[in-house]
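Dear support,

We are seeing what looks like truncated structure output for some complexes. This example has two components. We would appreciate it if you could run it in full and send us the complete token output so we can diff it against ours.
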Amino acid sequence: MSRRSEIVLAGSGGQGVLLSGTLLAEAAILEGANVVQTVSYGIATRGGTSMTEVIVDDGEIVFQQVEKPDVVLAMSPEAMKTYEASAGEGALVLYDTTFVEERQGKNLAGFPFTDTAAKMGNVGLANIIALGFLCAASGVLTQDALETAISERFSDKKRDANLAALRAGAAAAASVFAPA
Amino acid sequence: MKNHGRLLQGNEAMAQGALYAGARFYAGYPITPSSEIAQECSRVMPKLGGVYMQMEDEIASMAAIIGASLTGAKTFTATSGPGFSLMQENLGLAIMGEVPCVVMNVQRSGPSTGLATKPAQADIMQIRWGRHGDQELIALSPSSVAECFSLTVEAFNLAEMLRTPVVIAADEIVAHMRENIVIPEPGEIPVIDRAKPTGDPAAYRPFAPAPHGVPPMSAYGSEYIMHVSSSMHGPDGYSNNSPDNAARQIARKNGKFEHHRADIVKTKAFDADDAEVLFVAFGAVTRAARAAAAKLRANGVKAGVLQLVTVWPFPTEAVAELGSRAKTVVVPEMNYHGQIAGEVKKVLGADADVRRVNGWNGQIITPRDILKAI
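Here is the complete output from our reference environment:
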């Protein structure tokens, strides 16, 4: 079976979407797939639109950019504005209700990633909570591979905090997407 | 399971490729989108007994890698448009003094400081003609993280083989892209070192005629005395104003690239043999061109891609061969004036159907953009 996933992670500079994309890419390699991650950001380290695209494929990835996303994460109102229409084209669009107004619609799911991170004591973990949520909701990658990728990148307390954030995100997705 | 390697960024791959080739001296001034090359060198060089020097600017960076190369080291720097502009004068010195070194120019949108984080391929003519005087140099352009690595090794090999600066004409897309890459084992890619003088040191002439135009190169401090001057010099390196000498030196310094043309000029062809629509592309845009060609093939159009791995000297032979066979040639590139399209036209003639696809707003050229030209 041919495997291909096109994932877009978008937000504001400083929210950590680029790192989330890199962790996704590292996890994809652990699963034996080929991967390309591209990035787009402005000249400031905080603010401005920051976006990363990850393509996972069993075969060669020729064009490096996402043309039709399967999954989108929008961490800011600007990102949501850019990618909301993807939901109508079949992409699962996930967004942070801390910043983006909640809305109803097919293929749309919101969760307060940043508020949850703040409650866990570190708003900087919002990107990892979102990553756990995204993977559990979409099934593009296994949680095992992501946990390994996180464990290889971080050590000690940072690793534990990131793993806890990832699991919190996955658990949140399980409750949001639970059969009614 | 197949070894899918590890995730590496294009900039990191260029730095790693340099280390693989034996480079142990980096001097530079960090600038987006090349900064990760400096970062990687600052991290790794000290551990390998090498040198990482952060300079006050790009003029000094270029001067430092020339000086260090003259002591026998393999040296490099990395920059982007604004820094590359500052390097031109000393790059001319490296050409005149026949000093091997590698300059990584990660192209971003200009002019001037432009769009600092956005890609472009608009330095192609500057790379070739940015300095005054009769001269040649080599430029290679990677389209993937794997090529960022392999072409950097190749760049050092050519620099050493020809005693010349080599430019890596990368773009922001490949430089900031991450892909899974299997790093070659030591010995898997050949590594070439400059030819050193032998025989009687008193008879050594660093700029003498030589087979294939490349005289052996001594190192400062060795018993083979080497004098290097930016001014016209005789075979011994000391000033020489004779017209006959100038004619010989300029002819040799340029002719060595013709002698080694087969080693230097590399292209890759994708479904190009029977192509009626030929895309001529380089750098990251090669990938959009390949995707566009695949879409055309799926619709029964014989389309293919010629990737210019070497940008300078221009791959005239491959463009002429495949381009004259095609009915339509399309050149997609991230610049306003069609810098490579102009070269393709020069090869194929005014009557050839050569079409341009240009992007100059810092956005990536897509397969869809390219297909609009058909």
